[in-house]
Design brief:
The protein contains twelve helices and 21 strands. The protein has about 450 residues and is of the alpha/beta class. The protein folds into two domains: about 5-345, Rossmann fold, CATH 3.40.50; about 350-460, GMP Synthetase, Chain A, domain 3 (2-Layer Sandwich). Strand 18 (about 390-400), helix 12 (about 410-425) and strand 19 (about 430-435) form a beta-alpha-beta unit. Bound molecules: zinc ion. The site of zinc ion has 7 residues, from loops.
Length: about 450
């Protein structure tokens, strides 16, 4: 029987909907911490039935009984991508769970290194609830309002796993998500904007790059009937100038949503513009050279997922995002931790000759200038190769249909070269090159530096 026709499954989903969606409003910080403690104990106990965790914990001499709550979390060893690969496939699921009932998902190819983990149907629902919660905080009712989600439906992605392999095959009624339009971010922006124009959503969620393209098309007179109240961006940090551009083009509220393949929703910006962690779903640690960072200081995140019966994620060190936590409080009424700033992934970074790390948020800034300053979306794809501290190569794909419209290719190159020089230093040689095609499975930044010899002095 398909899960969505199963009354017990449906009851479980509805029950969790009412309990989970409001948890960050229902529980105060103290109660939330107790809830986290309870969830962590459960997850560690469950992880002990998973060969990967069982072996790691045994080797470390730690037993589930030793973990009473979050304050004991650092007794547990960290888990790396390598651990998951080594134990894949049977060693990353619990001996108590029938693997055939789980759905395999693969992490995205932005870094070129893919990784498979398992989730169950309920995991997927809980992940979606996290998203529903964030849009509710901005006044959107997913049962009444029309919602457009522009997801990455390339065959290997998490969205394909969630929607095509997870939800759609189990869909028999229109009970759920009848106001929902799913679009593919790999389609041309011209096609996407036409579909949105017909649907007329109140809310649009999508990747930063695609939304930038749509904003530009809107400015050029496409999508006349599109007037959403709220837009949520995801994928990479939104730069201030691109945010302004989105607000101007769509006349909508913009907020950022932050998540990962491994865990689903992690955090989102509330109405006050503060980043709230979904503290009932995930627990984050922030480390710099192995020690926890201070409030406002950037560190690499260590992720623990507090729910699910698929592959457990406990002290996972391979999200590779640089994030600064915040000890400040927000007046919006949500409980849980706050994030000061999300810098982006450090495994797709560039390095300046003086040892500063240039994170994706910075070169996102450079590329978005082509959109909002030069007003063109003829730049179809790009890849950066760092040959040495003094030599960077930029390869771009130009949209043939637009080659002779708007600013010249050379003008675009010069804006990109100048932007990179501003970030990296004027003594760095920037080579720009036009190519026919870029392999999407490859990382967006190819790093040829010997990382062992590199001395990091800070973040730009
Ligand atoms: Zn808030």
């Amino acid at each position: 029987m398909n899960s969505f026709n199963n009354p017990i499954f449906l009851l479980k989903v509805l029950k969790s909907y009412f309990f989970e969606i409001n948890r960050l409003r229902r529980l105060n910080d103290e109660k939330l911490r107790k809830y986290q403690d309870k969830r962590l104990r459960k997850m560690v106990k469950f992880a002990y039935t998973v060969p990967l965790y069982h072996d790691k914990y045994k080797k470390e001499g730690v037993h589930p009984e030793d973990i009473r709550g979050i304050s004991d979390i650092n007794k547990l060893p960290m888990i790396s991508k390598h651990d998951f690969k080594k134990y894949y496939p049977d060693g990353i699921v619990s001996s108590k769970v029938n693997k055939n009932k789980l759905i395999e998902i693969t992490t995205s190819g932005t870094t070129g290194k893919s990784l498979s983990i398992y989730v169950d149907m309920f995991d997927i629902i809980a992940g979606l609830f996290g998203y529903v919660r964030s849009i509710r905080e901005h006044g959107i009712d997913w049962r009444k309002d029309k919602i457009t989600i522009i997801a990455d439906f390339a065959p290997h992605t998490v969205e394909s796993g969630y929607i095509h392999k997870g939800i759609q095959p189990r869909f028999s009624s229109k009970l759920f998500f009848k106001n929902l339009q799913w679009l593919n971010t790999n389609d041309p922006p011209e096609k996407v904007i036409e579909q949105i124009n017909k649907f007329k959503p109140v809310f649009i969620g999508g990747y930063v790059g695609m939304l930038g393209h749509l904003a530009l098309l809107k400015e050029k007179g496409f999508g006349k009937d599109i007037s959403p109240k709220v837009i949520a961006t995801t994928g990479s940090p939104l730069t201030n100038s691109l945010k302004e551009f989105l607000i101007k083009s769509f006349d909508a509220t913009i907020f950022q949503s932050y998540g990962s393949t491994e865990s689903g929703s992690i955090a989102f910006e509330c109405k006050n513009g503060n980043y709230h962690v979904m503290s009932d779903l995930v627990y984050l640690e922030y480390l710099k050279e192995g020690r926890p960072v201070e409030s406002g200081e950037a560190g690499k995140i260590l992720l623990t997922k507090l729910y699910g019966i698929g592959t457990p994620i406990i002290r996972y060190d391979a999200i590779n995002d640089i994030v600064a936590p915040s000890k400040k409080t927000c007046s919006c009424g949500l409980s849980g931790e706050l994030i000061d700033r999300i810098y982006g992934r450090d495994d797709i970074s560039l390095y300046s000759p003086d040892g500063r790390v240039i994170l994706p948020a910075s070169f996102g800034e450079i590329f978005s200038k082509v959109l909002y300053e030069l007003k063109t979306n003829k730049l179809k794809d790009a890849i950066i190769i760092q040959h040495s501290l003094k030599k960077i190569e930029l390869q771009v794909v130009i949209d043939e249909k637009q080659r002779n419209i708007g600013p010249s290719v050379e003008k675009i190159f010069s804006v990109l070269r100048q932007g990179l020089k501003e970030k990296l230093g004027k003594n760095v040689e920037i080579i720009t090159k036009e190519v026919k095609k870029i392999d999407r499975e490859k990382p967006r930044v190819i790093q040829k530096l010997d990382m062992k010899k590199l001395k990091i002095t800070g973040y730009a």
